[in-house]
Specification:
alpha+beta; Aminopeptidase; Hisat_C; GNAT_dom
Length: about 350
């Protein structure tokens, strides 16, 4: 674009009136599983979140959102997108730097930024951020006309194969108790991170208000002494840190944890096709014995809230050591091929140098 200059880019707070233009530049994002159309207006009402647009010649050409977490010391970068015709011109860097400058000005306690990305992020991104964790992703398609038979087949597998403690739904008080136990936190979150719905949060009580206010379904299983595999890796190696930041040196991932925790929220509509919804199921821990019961329990609880005729893309996110257990359980159900891993990138909030841009706050 011969007449383009970063000097002519405006950065503005996003508003409800920008919705259509932001959606127009988002076509094809996340393989049709884009959550922003559903979340946009909800995000506008969140006091811990900021949303920005970039404009060129009066048109929206980029979008980015930031969210304060971890007690206000970490900012998550979410939903960066640039209009296809404007990619490669540096607009992503401009809106990112401006958003971070805004964070620093309004929230001087923020010291870290974190983002969740698909595998193979750009080299430039890896130069300024470290990969602090990765998790496996397994996805399947449950069309409405196959859903009943698929769930029936999964129930039969659970009835035939499931051993150990039955999964239970946790109340908010029980969730709080879970986060009071240092050993449990270490088993469930070996890198000190809770990755829910592609948000990467410190596994700390400071984030419970966000989590408990999101209508999540919490499911938990714990082995008894009689069915816990003998492994020194399941022992709690040290007390959980009293500060929010995970320590720089993490203990090795245990072979099998005695517990498994899983989260899901109600399926949300996505642009892939009319009537299609996305259901994210996030697993925490490394115990393969509980995988079947947890996935089935979430499906059984969440499918009834679908509108008539709805279909589901189910995205299961788990530690890499559980990939085979998840894949085996879902065998025979139509796979939905998206990315195989998600990465959590983390960097420090430093003073960036800004190009000359027009900005309004």
């Amino acid at each position: 674009m011969s007449d383009f200059s970063l000097r002519d880019v405006q950065i503005l707070p996003a508003t409800a009136s920008n919705y259509s233009e932001v959606m127009a530049i988002s076509n094809g994002i996340n393989d049709g599983l884009d959550y922003l159309p559903y979340k946009y207006h909800e995000w506008l009402a969140d006091s811990n979140r900021s949303m920005f647009i970039a404009k060129f010649k009066g048109k929206v050409v980029a979008f980015l959102s930031t969210l304060l977490v971890d007690g206000g010391i970490t900012a998550l970068l979410q939903s960066l997108r640039v209009a296809p015709i404007m990619r490669g011109h540096g607009i992503a860097g401009v809106i990112r730097r401006y958003a971070l400058d805004n964070l620093r000005f309004k929230n001087p306690d923020v010291t870290k930024i974190r983002a969740t990305r698909k595998e193979n992020p750009p080299a430039a991104l890896l130069k300024r951020n470290s990969v602090v964790h990765s998790k496996a992703v397994v996805s399947m398609l449950l069309p409405n006309n196959q859903m009943e038979d698929s769930i029936k087949a999964l129930r039969l597998r659970v009835k035939r194969d499931y051993v150990g403690a039955l999964p239970v739904v946790l109340s908010p008080l029980e969730v709080l108790d879970l986060f009071e136990n240092p050993c449990t936190l270490e088993h469930l979150f070996p890198k000190g991170l809770l990755i829910w719905d592609f948000l990467s949060l410190a596994a700390h009580k400071s984030n419970l208000k966000l989590l408990l206010g999101s209508g999540l379904l919490w499911i938990y299983s714990k082995s008894t002494h009689s069915d816990t595999p003998s492994s020194s890796g399941t022992q709690c190696s040290h007390p959980a840190p009293t500060h929010i930041n995970p320590p720089p040196q993490h203990p090795p991932l245990p072979h099998i944890s005695p517990e498994l925790l899983s989260l899901s929220s109600a399926p949300i509509p996505v642009p892939l096709a009319k009537g299609t919804h996305c259901l994210n199921i996030d697993l925490f821990g490394t115990n393969p014995r509980f995988v079947q019961g947890h996935i089935l329990h979430h499906l059984a609880k969440q499918i009834p809230v679908l509108p008539p005729g709805g279909s589901i893309i189910c995205v299961v996110v788990a530690e890499e050591t559980l990939r085979d257990a998840v894949t085996d359980f879902l065998q025979g159900i139509t796979p939905f091929h998206i990315w195989k891993h998600i990465l959590v990138l983390e960097g420090s909030l430093q003073n960036p140098r800004h190009p000359h841009i027009k900005a309004k706050m």
